[in-house]
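Query structure, 398 tokens:
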């Protein structure tokens, strides 16, 4: 049995590796000219790491990641701590390495090392998809690329992200929906002692602004024999009209942080200005089906989510593990029923993540001073067990 995977991001690499391990012949096509990943940092909870373990990719990812030592939620522009958890608190529920943080490009490189040689081909832009028919039923698909290349397989897996070409061509042309806020992101290194080692946090503004900040300590850069300081991934979000741009995006992010506690401004200010990214936050409503014949959507192509739960990558990795498990040993007549079973088993969980992430984004970005005060007091007074249960709902391995 032969499979084509479109997209060499996290979901596509995991799907390709999983299908290879399941005994399928796999070709992975990526439109970029070389392996890489646009973005800054990423977190993976225990559920994503457990799925990686079933794909044989967990240890390589752990080598490229860092387990935080303390996790905090703060309000009042970072001046007031609402809840704080040490990694041991999370590990007692989720096991060792309950959450890890990595540079996205380094995570992608670690996943790519799990692929057999020759599986991936770069510089291939998908132009069309043609379903195939056999014995009265669709039995495969042909991917047609911009250079005229045609590749036919028993299964085509679309892992080409939020703006999926396969989804547009074969499922729905509807555009992504804007979540109402834009996001700045970057990677920086600050001197040792300027920021807590192993720190991961989300800070909320005082009521009325809706601005949020995330700070995530990363492992040292690859090849660094002596770390130059603490490397951080950071993000800043605020409500804004879609499509906005500033002449200097770093300066705009720093403007939003006037009056915020340190080390937020120090971490943002240490990023090279031309390396600051800005993107509107979007997702899509859940689809009724992820399969059309032998064409399957996976990860963000099927169920993109806002990043508030840190579960976008985790859901894609779980999809890949479920796909590999479901198709292992499948005969020609068993592919469609097994794909349907896989989708049926995943749809409720991924839809729940999309909805919960949207609720958390709304809660963190409240612009009402009164509602913001109620939120902060409720969060501060919540028993630790309740707060942990809310955090762990989707982080537990499945």
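Result returned for the query:
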């Amino acid at each position: 049995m032969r499979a084509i995977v479109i997209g060499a991001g996290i979901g596509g690499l995991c799907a390709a590796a999983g299908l290879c391990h399941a005994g399928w012949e796999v070709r992975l096509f990526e439109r970029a000219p070389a392996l890489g990943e646009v973005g800054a940092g990423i977190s993976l909870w225990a559920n994503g790491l457990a799925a990686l373990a079933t794909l044989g990719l967990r240890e390589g990812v752990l080598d490229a990641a860092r387990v935080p030592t303390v996790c905090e939620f703060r309000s009042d522009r970072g001046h007031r701590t609402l809840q704080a958890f040490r990694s041991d608190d999370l590990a007692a529920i989720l096991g060792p390495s309950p959450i890890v943080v990595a540079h996205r490009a380094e995570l992608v490189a670690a996943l790519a090392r799990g692929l057999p040689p020759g599986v991936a081909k770069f510089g291939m832009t998908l132009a069309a998809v043609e379903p195939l028919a056999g014995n009265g039923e669709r039995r495969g698909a042909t991917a047609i690329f911009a250079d005229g290349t045609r590749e036919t397989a028993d299964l085509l897996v679309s892992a080409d992200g939020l703006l999926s070409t396969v989804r547009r061509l074969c499922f729905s042309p509807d555009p992504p929906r804007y979540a109402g806020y834009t996001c700045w992101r970057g990677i920086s290194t600050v001197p040792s002692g300027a920021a807590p080692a192993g720190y991961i946090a989300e800070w909320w503004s005082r009521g009325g602004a809706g601005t949020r900040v995330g700070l995530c300590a990363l492992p040292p850069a690859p090849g660094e024999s002596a770390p130059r300081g603490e490397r951080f991934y950071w993000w800043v979000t605020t409500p804004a009209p879609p499509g906005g741009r500033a002449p200097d995006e770093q300066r705009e992010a720093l403007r939003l942080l006037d009056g915020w506690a340190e080390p937020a401004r120090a971490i943002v200010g240490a990023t090279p200005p031309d390396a600051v990214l800005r993107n509107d936050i979007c997702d899509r409503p859940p689809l009724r089906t992820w399969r059309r014949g032998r064409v399957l959507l996976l990860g963000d192509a099927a169920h993109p989510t806002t990043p508030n739960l840190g579960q976008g990558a985790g859901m894609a990795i779980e999809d890949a593990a479920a796909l590999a498990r479901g198709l292992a040993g499948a005969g020609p007549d068993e592919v469609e029923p097994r794909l349907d079973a896989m989708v049926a088993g995943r749809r409720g969980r991924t839809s729940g993540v999309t909805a919960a992430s949207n609720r958390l984004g709304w809660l963190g970005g409240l612009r009402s001073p009164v509602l913001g005060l109620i939120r902060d007091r409720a969060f501060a007074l919540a028993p630790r067990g309740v707060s942990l249960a809310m955090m762990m709902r989707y982080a537990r391995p499945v």
